[in-house]
Amino acid sequence: MKGVHTFRNIRNSKEIYSKAKLSKNIVVVGAGFLGMELAATLKDNFPYCNITIIDRNNCPFEKVLGRQIGEFFQK
Q1: CATH code, domain carrying 34
Q2: 59-64: long-range contacts (C-beta < 8 A, 24 or more apart)?
């Protein structure tokens, strides 16, 4: 699908980075360690982009670290 990329290795990260240079809106699916790190790195490098994170849990890291810590990171 055009504009959809997976993030599993260094090659994927290079593809995402090159596409992000031209993007105004970026959606990251997954609020685990990889998804949150990807979103933070993209925001640091492309502060003009709108970054949206989608996850099935209510807050980041909820499944692994618990709701209290997830809510802290969500803020």
Answers
A1: 3.50.50.60
A2: 59/31, 60/31, 60/32, 60/36, 61/31, 61/32, 61/33, 61/36, 62/31, 63/32, 64/32, 64/33
Query: Does some domain include residue 48?
Result: yes
Please, how many CA atoms are within 13 Å of residue 8, restricted to the half-sphere of its CB?
Answer: 2
Secondary-structure percent of the chain, ordered helix, strand, coil, rounded to 5: 50, 15, 40
3-state secondary structure of 47: coil
Beta strands (DSSP E) in the chain are: 25-29, 50-54
Encode pLDDT of 6-21 as tens digits: 888 889 889 999 999 9
For the entire predicted model, the pTM comes to 0.83
